[in-house]
Design brief:
The chain is an alpha/beta fold. Helix content is 42%, strand content 9%. The strands form two sheets. It has a five-stranded parallel beta sheet with strand order 3-2-1-4-7, with helices on both faces. A two-stranded antiparallel sheet has the order 5-6. Helix 1 links the parallel strand 1 and strand 2. The radius of gyration is 20 Å and the shape is globular.
Length: 313
């Protein structure tokens, strides 16, 4: 097979989260020929696929070996699966088989930040979403898999906070998008995990009150039980949760923007924001430049990069 003749089209991974929405809409804006790639799609992923208007999808189904489930019941542990790495290999294979030149993922700049250090090594729960992995995988792919399939993350230059600001422009996806691992099977946000709190903080400054309540079902800033999680995702306690959460700096900036928004509307601050204002935010300077930040460590084609830059300036 002549792999130099892959069709000039994009295979875009759709997880059901707001990051997938932003990538899909960015490629639609550029009128790129695109299909969606989904692995055992959740209800959220299926709804986003339907709402996106993208006509074609490649859907892969996998099953867990029953032996593994039997071992789980006996107390054996699975260990951590580098899921994003697994998706990278799987989507690259599908791109090769079905003639797609580009594989598009939606891993962001925030995933580069480690969770903790151990024995002098930085430990990053999100390593297989990081730029370091992306670079290594591209090199490996060119050498051993396919010289002509291009794997890249469209959102690599951006922080989670910036992605939330872009997602806020696409209201029709608000109630469909889900990213909570705990509530994945039930298609809900649990409202109790680090990922829920991190995403809530990143979205709150950019959404109307009714919209954010329609997404999460309640105001997480009013939940006093989340204070310990808040301490961990802002770096006041260690380690940073082994979850896909924003960087310390952008979580702090999200809190500042949330406070600024409510104070501008002359509304009282809910518990977590009042606590953050009095006990956390005074320890570090504001970084409003994060909303317009751009990481040059990326593999975006020039036209895609320029289009994305216009949306954050």
């Amino acid at each position: 097979k002549d792999t130099s003749r892959h069709k000039n089209r994009f295979l875009t991974l759709n997880s059901g989260g707001r990051d997938s929405v932003v990538s899909i809409e960015a490629l639609k804006n550029l009128n790129r020929e695109m299909s969606l790639f989904m692995l055992n799609p959740t209800k959220a992923a299926q709804e986003i696929a339907d709402q996106s208007g993208v006509e074609n999808s490649i859907i892969v189904k996998r099953e867990i070996d029953k032996t593994l489930l039997e071992l789980n019941t006996k107390g054996y542990l699975n260990g951590h699966t580098p899921f994003s790495a697994y998706l990278a290999f799987l989507s690259e294979l599908c791109a090769f088989v079905f003639d797609y030149k580009y594989v598009v993922v939606s891993n962001e700049r925030s995933s580069n930040e480690e969770n903790t250090e151990y024995l002098g090594e930085k430990i990053n729960h999100q390593y297989s979403k990081s730029f370091e992995f992306e670079k290594s995988f591209r090199e490996y792919s060119k050498k051993y898999l396919s010289e002509h399939v291009e794997y890249f993350s469209l959102l690599r230059p951006l922080y989670e906070l910036q992605i939330s600001a872009l997602f806020a422009k696409h209201k029709r996806y608000f109630t469909s998008s889900k990213s909570c691992n705990v509530g994945q099977k039930d298609n809900t946000w649990c409202g109790k995990c680090p990922k829920c709190l991190s995403i809530y903080i990143s979205l709150f400054p950019f959404l109307e009150e009714n919209d954010i309540k329609s997404i999460f079902g309640k105001n997480l800033y009013e939940d006093e039980a989340l204070k310990d999680l808040l301490m961990h995702i802002t770096g006041q306690k260690s380690p940073k949760p082994f979850e896909c959460v924003g960087t310390y700096d952008e979580i702090l900036e999200g809190l500042r923007l949330s406070i600024k928004k409510l104070e501008k509307e002359n509304e009282a601050l809910p518990y977590l924001l009042q606590y953050a204002k009095e006990n956390i935010l005074s320890k570090s300077p504001a970084k409003p430049e994060l909303l317009k930040a751009w990481d040059e460590n990326n593999f975006l084609a020039e036209e895609i990069a320029q289009n994305l830059k216009t949306q954050i300036t």
